[in-house]
Write a structure and sequence with these properties.
76% of the residues lie in helices and 0% in strands. The chain has one domain. The radius of gyration is 19 Å and the shape is elongated.
């Protein structure tokens, strides 16, 4: 299969995201400690970047041993496309199965602490908005991460001495 690494690692990225959401919920960031969620959710960048690094290393070791930047970048784009396509489904899984109380809890919190009006909170904190944010965010951050990781993983071309 031509795109087996992209499919494998795009899918694993989504699995890691779902595990992170289980972790956030277990830490109480979707309930009693919801005021901390907006800070700690940014820590997701660490495992997200690590998944890209492991994916690139796997591709380089088992699929494309002489990976130049361009090859790595296009591999990352493929992986990102897979993750982006799966992103709305993953948001649905989080909202419906993992943490269905998140939206009511966060709406209550921001309204109670006068950070938003009820109407603004309901317009922002809902499954449709989060599906869009997740899809766009996965794509944009995936492209940026792919470009940077490809720089570090690439095989340097030796200079020809004359």
């Amino acid at each position: 299969m031509r795109y087996k690494f992209e499919l494998k690692w795009g899918f694993l990225f989504i699995v890691m995201f779902l595990l992170w959401m289980v972790f956030e919920k277990a830490m109480g960031w979707h309930g009693e400690k919801i005021e901390d969620q907006y800070i700690y959710t940014n820590l997701f960048a660490i495992p997200a970047i690590l998944v890209y690094v492991f994916a690139f290393l796997d591709k380089k070791k088992n699929g494309h041993k002489s990976m130049q930047w361009k090859h790595g970048f296009f591999f990352g784009i493929g992986m990102t496309i897979v993750a982006t396509i799966l992103s709305p489904l993953s948001q649905w899984i989080v909202s419906e199965l993992i943490s269905p109380e998140y939206f009511p809890n966060v709406i209550h919190y921001v309204v109670e602490h006068e950070k938003m009006t009820q109407e603004a909170a309901e317009a922002f904190f809902n499954i449709n908005n989060f599906m869009i944010q997740s899809t766009v965010g996965t794509f944009v951050m995936g492209i940026i991460t792919s470009a940077i990781v490809a720089l570090f993983i690439r095989k340097k071309t030796p200079e020809i001495l004359g």
